[in-house]
Amino acid sequence: MKALNPVSIRPPFAAYAHGTEIPAHKRVVVTSGQLGIRADDSIPESSYEQALICFENIREILREGDMAPSDIAHISAYVTSREHMAGYMRARDEFLAGTGRVPSSTLLIVSGFTREEFKVEVEVMAAI
């Protein structure tokens, strides 16, 4: 995959690419949005800890599809407040560290999720 960052537009605000080219004949996996809830149904309070769970779930989904975080082409993330952006971004950067990938990314602030205690939701598209 190739990161697309035209020099004619403003550079990205953080560790992401403006676009990602996925070459022909790649196998693609798209995840559903993952929430910060553990297998035992517990939900941590902080957006950072919730984002860590989201990314661990994504890692497991990718593993099931014979992929890894380094195969991620795009990340879409949703937080319920600007105050949760830093925790999400910290978890995202830790998740992608060492992958050699800077995928394209979208981060939106939304009014809420299915349960009030959720602060972060993350979905990805990966290709190999």
Please, how many domains? 1
Overall strand count = 7
Roughly how many Å is the radius of gyration? Answer: 14 Å
CATH topology: 60s Ribosomal Protein L30, Chain: A
What is the correct CATH architecture?
2-Layer Sandwich
Residue share in helix: 10-25%
Termini separation: 8 Å
CATH class: Alpha Beta
Q: Shape, please?
A: globular
Average of per-residue pLDDT values: 97
List the secondary-structure elements in sequence, H or E. Answer: EEEEHEHEE
List the main descriptive attributes of the protein structure presented here.
128 residues; alpha+beta; 60s Ribosomal Protein L30, Chain: A; two-stranded antiparallel ribbon; 23% helix
In short:
By secondary structure, the protein is an alpha+beta fold. The protein is built from two helices and seven strands.
Would you write up a description of this structure?
By secondary structure, this protein is an alpha+beta fold. The protein has a single domain (2-6, 27-127), classed as RutC-like (60s Ribosomal Protein L30, Chain: A, 2-Layer Sandwich). It contains 2 helices and 7 strands; from the N terminus they run ββββαβαββ. The chain has helices at residues 47-64, 85-96, and strands spanning 2-4, 19-21, 28-30, 34-35, 72-79, 104-109, 120-127. The strands form 2 sheets. Strands 3, 4, 5, 6 and 7 form a 5-stranded mixed beta sheet that branches. The chain has a two-stranded antiparallel ribbon with strand order 1-2. The longest helix is centred in the middle third of the chain and has 18 residues, at 47-64. The protein is globular and about 40 Å long.
